[in-house]
Amino acid sequence: MALFKRHTNRKSILYIRNGIIIIVLLAFALATLFPIYFMIISSFGDPIEAGAASYTLWPDKFTLASYKFFFDYSEHSYRWLINSFVVAACVTVSNVLFASLAGYAFSKIRFRGRSVLFAVLLCAMMIPYQVTQVPLYILIVNIFQIENTYAALIAPSLVTVYNIFLAKQFISSIPTEIIESAKVEGCSQWKIYAKIILPLSKTVMAVMAILTFMESWNTFFWPFLVTNTMEMQTIQVGLKNFRFANTTYFAPMMAGATISAVPMFILFFSLQKYFLEGVTVGAVKG
Amino acid sequence: MTNKIRVFASVLALTVSLSALSACSSGNNGGNGPGASASNDPGAAVDAKDTITALLPPVSANYQSNFDQMETDFNKLYPNLTLQIEPASWEDITQKLDTQVNAGSPPDIAFIGSDGISKYVEQGMLMDITAEATSDIIGDFDPVPLDYMKNGSGLYGFPAYMSIHALGGNKQFLEEAGIDWKSVQQNGWTYGEFREAIKMGVVSSGGATSRYGFVFATSGVTAKDYLNILIKNAGMPAAFDKDLKYAYTSQNYLGVLKAVRELIDDGSMPKELSSVDAGKRWNMFLTGQTMITGKGLATFENSAKTNNKKIEAADGAVEGSIPVDYVVLPVPTFAGADPVASAAVDGYVTFRGKKEPTEEHKANVAKAAYFLASGKIAATTNTELLVEQITDSGRAAAESLTVERDPDNAAASQRLQSIASPARPDIPAELGAEAIKLEDEVIIPKFQALLADEITPEEMFEALKKAAVEAFGEDGVVTE
Amino acid sequence: MMARLARIVKKRIVSGDGGWAYAFIAVALVVFALFTAYPVIHAFMISFQEYKPLGSTYVGFDNYVHSFEDELFWKSIKNTIVYTALTVPVNLLLSFGVAILILPLKKWLQTSFKAVYYLPAVASGVALSVVWLWIFDPLQSGILNQAAAFFGIGNQNWLGTSATSMFSLVLMAWLSSHGTSIIIYLAALIGIDNSYYEAAELDGASFFQKLSYIVIPFMKPTTLFLLVTGIIGSFQVFQNAYLMTGGGPDNATTMVGLLIFNNAFKYFEFGEASAQALILTVIIAIISFIQFKFLGNDVEY
């Protein structure tokens, strides 16, 4: 039983319906996938200094030279990938943990100043980062003096308001009776969080992990600001070094972009199962 | 009991977050911030240890890969000094520098265009090195490019090169169109001659143009390059005339705007010009879709040659490209004005932090800037870029480096170099900043609209005049 | 007697939970205070100053007055509102529709489609902007122009004229940025317990009845989240205009995010940029407040 009828007795209707759905989805997918397709096929071209992007739908040539070129271009290519990974992993773990805690508190526990605090958090999120960037830079570089460290790369995004808001919205739809009854049975809030909320929010946490990891992995400007040696740069900062004054090493840049996308694919598919199976409230109750 | 757990939980939470912070900071490799280097003990000996930081983009193809060598060479020359180079890409260097400047902790040296100097002078963040630049150093530089690094009475760094913004033509197409390009290289051309010439370059059949006479990159902010290159040859080499009156309100300016429209309306330039970017027009040049392109830099001769070789080897040339002989061409002149080559001087600009720098640090920064702007580094970089050397030491070091250049192009480049528009350090920083704002807020948006055929040249001119009078007053602008 | 005891116990639980709540949000608050609140307060102070790194001067409300008098500021607000109104609701509908359509498919198909729609978010912005510049190529070789020619429409100067440049940016948003919302919607859809559908089916509910009585109310918190964050994101957007049009032609695509960026970095008018950012924040806050008013009452089951 689900939103869609199962049509268990009439297979043909099921096939037709799903067929139509798939066609619609595919058509839309083609439009969104095109840039990725272009990125990947261009990466198999020659690592030449293209005076201008020459566009082709089908590669004339298949070579891995650009990938080799990317790793040969700088001795730090591997280091960039590792840096990105360390930063993104730290940020992801800390966000999933602390944002879900805060999201639970904001959605299900009554405490003094709850709505005011939350409103303040949201308002801060609305301020364009263009104006907070310089004060933040002053704080990290001039006051804390942690320029060019992992700390500087990680600290500002340990917990983001976006994730707290996301967790709060999802946890708010968990039935309150479960929490009430657990409380009556004498569970502490920590236990409720660990034994009830966590298992029930697997889905949103997987989503949060993917979004956070990707966000951190793709961030360019902050790492660029607070690093000043090649060894501390992240992959996105390193990628930009391929761009030259009037010309661009086009294919290797695309190869770099493809390489930088790979970890996201892996993460996506490994977390996939958590948001494919819906977590049923009943299963936890029992 | 519950109370204890609660306290424990919050302590735990805090510890985790703090340890995350501190554990990570162990990755600190002790690079002292740019601000720290400025805080030297004023009483220290002259050869006290000092670190000079420099923020440098990929000036030429192999420039950034030489950073380690540069650092080592500098340390060999001045054993007490350390040069610490930070790489940055062209696209992002300004934004990083601007953030650092606003935070009060810029690097000691940054490689930027000289047109940015007035903006930083106004912020009070540049370091005047007039006193540190000895007569030997000053004597090494050609005077014209050196002047670009001045503002008012101050000298704020050393120039790396002066690059001439010219036009570039396809030799075969020029000859087919009956244009005596050699004479143009030697004697220049007027707008009238240019207009007729590029008309001849157009190839079209049935209303569809397969080759244009002239294409210039004007998409986004590059529109201003196009306009600037033209107005320099219309008797307005700078935004202000000798009496510091705003020059762009002159009738000649309107003439140039009309000419811009004429070239498009003639069909010699694409009507979609307003969104042609630098990559697109170079692609059009290599694939034979245009006879002349702009702006033309000296290195383009090299890029064209490289592509020709690839066509010959049938390996990795630009899709659909044809062999091209690149010809350096001057920009046409308007209304009988003298030809003036638009010059861009980039160089090593010296910054200061929040604290007043000590005399020693100033001297050390000047040493580093001079080290980067002259001798071997200048010689290799400028040779790679095919631009003229602008220091005696650079010329000496470049003698051993062979440059493969077309003799006609080399001669034409040198001729253009000799008529390069001079710097105007007499324009006060405040006026300069106002002119830049006017350019960004009025000229560029209106010019984009003019290119897209949304307003007339007269409408744009009136809008500019009105804004200029508002900014500089009736007496502050040229009126004829 | 028992009832009174229960009430006391309950009261203790509720008031006692306050401590837990503070413990749970402690880390978030510390991080927030340091890395968000502090810079924001700093920016607030700067908005009353003429900012200079070596020493600012206090100018009172000058920056605010100047912003309110600036035509370009209002034009950019207008552009931003137009852009937001055209992109955010359409993107929400599209993602919701796609998420619903993915739901009945077999698991491997679900996975593949999710991955497919999510991919564009994974690609680097540089690669994307190159492709989009090709799509909007002004000459006949451009993809969109070839498509237009197929429908008998003449060559368009997509990014180069005021008439089409905003549309081009909107089109780009429609086709490229919903991976995130699809994933979030799907996660929420999967969270709906099957027992609701079972109950509805016993009552003989049709697909659309189930959609409007179960799914849509259940999606309220998610929709609110996506709407609020979508609008915030859209009001701050500056990358696309910065990369694709530079705000032109004639400021037709100058978004307020781009204007603030230019004021802060191009002209070094940090005070004015901060003032404009705070005005913008007030506008977004009002819009968000209205959204919370209409969608905010938490759905409880």
TrEMBL record, chain A:
Pfam families assigned: BPD_transp_1
Cellular compartments per GO CC: plasma membrane
Membrane-crossing segments per the record: 20-40, 80-104, 116-144, 150-171, 192-214, 249-269
Main subcellular location: membrane
Keyword annotations from UniProtKB, A to Z: Cell membrane, Membrane, Transmembrane, Transmembrane helix, Transport
Topology within the bilayer: Multi-pass membrane protein
Localization per record: Cell membrane
GO terms under biological process: transmembrane transport
Keyword DNA repair on entry: no
Stored InterPro entries: MetI-like (IPR000515), MetI-like_sf (IPR035906)
Location of the ABC transmembrane type-1 domain: 81-271
Family recorded in the similarity comment: Belongs to the binding-protein-dependent transport system permease family.
Protein name (Swiss-Prot/TrEMBL): Carbohydrate ABC transporter permease
Organism: Paenibacillus arenilitoris
Upper taxonomic lineage: Bacteria, Bacillati, Bacillota, Bacilli, Bacillales
Automatic annotation (TrEMBL), chain B:
Protein name, per record: Extracellular solute-binding protein
Residues making up the signal peptide according to the UniProt record: 1-22
High-level lineage: Bacteria, Bacillati, Bacillota, Bacilli, Bacillales
Protein's UniProt keywords contain Signal: yes
Keyword Signal part of the UniProt annotation: yes
PROSITE patterns linked: PROKAR_LIPOPROTEIN
Keywords of the record: Signal
